[in-house]
Amino acid sequence: KNADKSTVTCLNCRTDFKFYGNTTNLKEHLKRKHPTLIAIPSTSNDSNDPDTDLQNIDNLDNLSNIQLPSTSSNVQNHSLTSAQSCIPAKRSRQLKLFGSTKNNELTIAENNDIDKSLVKMIIADYQPLSIVENVGFLEYTKKLQPLYTPPSRKLLTTKLLPGQYDIIFSKLKYMLKNVNDVSVTTDMWTSDSTKSYLTVTCRFICDDYLYSPVISTKEVHGSHTRENIASVLSIIFNQWDITSKKYHHPYVAHTLNLSVNEAIDKNKEFLQVLKTCRAIVGHFKHSSFATDKLQEFQKQMGLPELKVKQDWDIIADCVKILKPFESMTPEFSGEKYPTLSLVIPLIRGLQLMVKNIKPEIDAGISLQNSLLDAVTRRLGILEKNKIVAKSTFLDPRFKKTTFGLADNAENTQKWIIEELTSIICLNNEDYNNITETSAPATLTESSNSLWEHFDNKLSKVRSVINPEVNSTLIVRQYIEISHLQRGKNCLDFWKQHKRTFPELYKLQLKYLCITATSVPSERVFSKAGLLTNDRRNKLSPKNLDYIIILNNNYNMILAIQ
């Protein structure tokens, strides 16, 4: 308290503020400016346990008992040590950034929490494992929490990363055990250190939600022969217990790209224009002088008409024709919604859209005809592909309406009825087995005669309603339901109707999880390039596998912990 008795001075920062006979201003100032210097004196002389003197930072009422020393005009000469000597010896521990500590050490729980956050940062941002050895990072962590020591790189790779991987592995394996059907996509890529890797993703529907986790990234040794690739895939499938019958269906986006390339290669005039455009772009990219001159000319007004106007007309026509193909690719590339069921309606829409375009020059007309021919020949046949057709039929947004030919729609309906009949027959066998085993072991002759009439009548009813008729009725009822709006998620429809159509619900789990492209696994190796650059090319294949799986399933980690 100062001589005028109306102001007080903080002995730590020498700030003056009003004094009204209580410690409110002092309390608020210490809370805001010096939280780690707050000391609460003991209010009891009977306790011998120092832990009973610990108080919460918000409980500052006892500060009124502290006797602050009087000061003179030369208060600046007081040191922090002399100020602290005026405070009673018993005090609470200093508060640290990550909570209270004992004996100036982090608790095991606090240390583990920071370790987990560090691992999540490394996997989420694809940071190099050597970051824990970088001087700047160590200084930064020391400023945040002086009591924390980051783990060594060895500890990261032998304990922390494998620990997080084991959590994800167990969770995914449990989920896969509870689903009957999964869709698998694969892709190969080469790291900066010229190592070849095979990444596998799978898609499945669990609890009416579509999952697309990465399950493995393995190094491929030797030539990329089908035997070597099959051997790596077998190891991965056995590791995840994916061992039953597998079916192959074409990569639709790749087939679409082949159709476009085929049409362009057939159009010599447009192909020549493309080569010229590429040469011009390449010239300006490699010459800053030419780029500056081009920009200078672009700013001028009244330039004469270009002599290559016909080339610009060709480009304008062809861009207009190719635009629908560019729009189609992102539709096939989704990870959070079924994509195979989109193939038939999108191909049908693409054909109609390209056909309705009116090119103005011969080169445009030629490209249009070539594209329509290639799409019809390469992709039009997918209406007859059982897997693709069934997927479209089981999508309540499309059913039979998007098929180009009525015969293809009718054939698909027959395929669905046949598979549905098999499911119903299997269910009936299970029901009969349960009924037989649950019947009383011994029945008297009198009881048999009492129930004989009922049993005979029930067997006649069962014989009348055979599985094929039942399947036909179920499919007909499904078709008669109003179509789901195109912008809605078809999985939500099946979630609501799983009790109405239990057998169809099982079928959609099988076909709607299938992806139309290998984009999920392609996205992985585009990200993995960040992992295998010059600063990270010493990653072992095992650690690379850990980080890729953890990164691509990062949201699942957050949900678990």
From TrEMBL:
<dbReference type="GO" id="GO:0003677">
    <property type="term" value="F:DNA binding"/>
</dbReference>
<dbReference type="GO" id="GO:0005634">
    <property type="term" value="C:nucleus"/>
</dbReference>
<keyword id="KW-0863">Zinc-finger</keyword>
<keyword id="KW-0539">Nucleus</keyword>
<keyword id="KW-0805">Transcription regulation</keyword>
<feature type="domain" description="BED-type">
    <location>
        <begin position="4"/>
        <end position="35"/>
    </location>
</feature>
<dbReference type="Pfam" id="PF02892">
    <property type="entry name" value="zf-BED"/>
</dbReference>
<dbReference type="InterPro" id="IPR052035">
    <property type="entry name" value="ZnF_BED_domain_contain"/>
</dbReference>
<dbReference type="InterPro" id="IPR036236">
    <property type="entry name" value="Znf_C2H2_sf"/>
</dbReference>
<keyword id="KW-0862">Zinc</keyword>
<protein>
    <recommendedName>
        <fullName>BED-type domain-containing protein</fullName>
    </recommendedName>
</protein>
<dbReference type="InterPro" id="IPR012337">
    <property type="entry name" value="RNaseH-like_sf"/>
</dbReference>
<dbReference type="GO" id="GO:0009791">
    <property type="term" value="P:post-embryonic development"/>
</dbReference>
<keyword id="KW-0238">DNA-binding</keyword>
<dbReference type="GO" id="GO:0046983">
    <property type="term" value="F:protein dimerization activity"/>
</dbReference>
<dbReference type="GO" id="GO:0008270">
    <property type="term" value="F:zinc ion binding"/>
</dbReference>
<dbReference type="InterPro" id="IPR003656">
    <property type="entry name" value="Znf_BED"/>
</dbReference>
<keyword id="KW-0804">Transcription</keyword>
<dbReference type="Pfam" id="PF05699">
    <property type="entry name" value="Dimer_Tnp_hAT"/>
</dbReference>
<feature type="domain" description="HAT C-terminal dimerisation">
    <location>
        <begin position="476"/>
        <end position="553"/>
    </location>
</feature>
<dbReference type="InterPro" id="IPR008906">
    <property type="entry name" value="HATC_C_dom"/>
</dbReference>
<keyword id="KW-0479">Metal-binding</keyword>
